[in-house]
Amino acid sequence: MIAANGVEGLDLTALDRFFAERLAGYAGGLRAELMSGGRSNLTYRLTTGDITWVLRRPPLGTLTPSAHDMAREYRIVSALVDSAVPVAKPIVLADDSVIGVPFAVVEFVPGTVVRSEEDLATWSDSEVRACAAGLVDVLAALHAVDPGEVGLADFGRPEGYLRRQVERWYSQWNRVRTRESSDIETLHRRLDELCPGECGSAIVHGDFRVDNAILAPGDPGRVRALVDWEMATLGDPLADLAVHLAYRDSAFAPVLGGSAASTSHRMPGPADLAQRYATVSGRELVHLEFHMALAYFKIAVIAEGIHGRHQRGDTRGDGFADVGKAVAPLAAAGLRALSRK
């Protein structure tokens, strides 16, 4: 549905009135453009000429329970804003009374976002390695934050996290699937049988990859802000690492239109990334095969959900037609990871 002001998914008149009431010094003249949409929450750039913000709202169409929680995303950004983890400064959070769905607004952080292999073309090999290393270092820094010290002690339930993840993503699969998959069913059964206890607890991002980071222009090894916190919680930090490693697999490429930067052969391999994390974080990489299999399972389900939204016409932009092709290779990769146990 396109609002009367021509911005799909937003009502600029309602937003303008809301900002005038809530934000001191707001002068009006709001404009908006969609930055990305359909894979997760919709992201818009808002400008008035004097300011630039980013607004995040849930995607169009039917939403899955517990997904796209704007208040949760806003809370963690607010908690981390003064920590060693770079995030965008929070501006305001609203419920569904303004534009019909909840939304969050944060500052716009200028920088470089690397999505495709083509985006890496102008970088030297040393810059690509610096980017990969910088990301791992930020992930380790996130996992080093004491949740209690930043007001997130109740942000999740670390005990039993892995078991709940196995069941959550299988439940999600049954909710979003558009076809049957014997590999998904087998992978779930084996994850259920082999699920270990947690090796520790930390704040986990849940979707940590290179295109969820804004990098400093001219310095790809420095992260200016991590974004897309909708799946953040308290959980096993190695599960977070494993998601980052799984995104390195070429099976993920169709999810980002067939040319994901994380799958580039120029990026360090998963073993190198894992070793750097172990060195920087001081954590032992226990049960990593299980964590990798769970990561593939999770990403496969996410891909199926995107595929379903695209089939229903709820995605916006290009690059969605082949997302569904990633599901089978990702599930197969999960089974291979378990076979290495």
Describe the structure.
It is globular, with a radius of gyration of 20 Å. The protein is of the alpha+beta class. Helices cover 38% and strands 13% of the residues. It is built from nine helices and nine strands. It folds into two domains: 96 residues, Phosphorylase Kinase, domain 1; 223 residues, Aminoglycoside phosphotransferase (APH), C-terminal lobe (Aminoglycoside 3'-phosphotransferase, Chain: A, domain 2, Alpha-Beta Complex). The strands form three sheets. Strands 1-2-3-5-4 form a five-stranded antiparallel sheet, with helices on one face. β4 and β5 form a beta hairpin. α6 crosses α8. The longest helix is centred in the last third of the chain and has 25 residues.
CATH architecture verdict of the largest domain: Alpha-Beta Complex
- Main-sheet strand order equals 1-2-3-5-4
Q: What's the total count of β strands?
A: 9
> Any idea what the shape is?
globular
Proportion of strand residues = 5-15%
List the total number of helices: 9
Distance between the termini: 49 Å
The string of secondary-structure elements, in order, is HEEEHEEHHHEEEEHHHH
Radius of gyration based on Cα positions:
20 Å
Per CATH, what is the topology of the largest domain? Aminoglycoside 3'-phosphotransferase, Chain: A, domain 2
Could you say which structural class the secondary elements and strand pairing correspond to? Answer: alpha+beta
Proportion in helices: 25-40%
**Which segments are poorly predicted (pLDDT under 50) over 5 or more consecutive residues?**
none
